Sequence to fold (276 residues):
Amino acid sequence: MWASKIAAGVTATVEVRRPWDGIMRPRPELFIEFRSPSGGLLGVDSAPWEPSLNDALVAQGIKARSLSHEAERLSIALRALFEPLTRRYNDDYFNSVLIELVQDMGMNTAEIEDLMPDITSYKPSQGVHRDECRDDIKATLAKVAKESVEQLRYSRGEALDILTAALAEYLDERFSVTSRRKLGWAKPSPGFWTLVANLAPGYPGATRDAAWTASAWDIATYLRSENFNTTAVTVERELLEQSANDSSFPWSVTLDPITRSLRFIPKTQNRLLSKT
Fold:
């Protein structure tokens, strides 16, 4: 029906709706608004999101109602476009190549940079699969960028802004960043580590120069009192990871699997012990 309206000279715009429902987002819906040549509203059609429907709308040059809606629309389209690649290369490898490629292409906008602390990926192994995966991802991004310019008639600058914003949305959803942040499971900000590094004097007999023990629950409770939304599970995971990977963090941290208590051993002490 919408195609016949367009053929009759009616203009149309698209809006994607998928409001948050707690920590989840429902299946997106497409709303197509029709206006007469004079600008009067003629009606609105709606339909559940289908890649084929969106492809047809793009082929007809029907834009979203704003650049932000266009970015959200494209982020949903990227899920379908990338799905064959996730099956071909497996999810983890695809994730690692995608993150590496986004960084190599200089697409680290403020929105993407904000997500990175909560995105865990490893450096992909070198070889033909990495090169093929990179080429497939770049071909997909080039395809949608070309469509933005040639079919939707955006300027190249607008097309790039839409693509980077869409990638941020896609990465957010793929890595469940916003959902985990809502639950308090995301990685804390750098201020988290400053607070933890200054916790020792608050525990009986504990200093920065002596080993000490604390429960992850107590640390999480303290951090929440300082407006850091976190959980004991997050504290355990992140402190163990931080002590292993960050040379500036002052302690080596181990976890007692029975008591769930964290033991902090000053790294200076570790170095002294390793010399004896």
Summary: The radius of gyration is 25 Å.
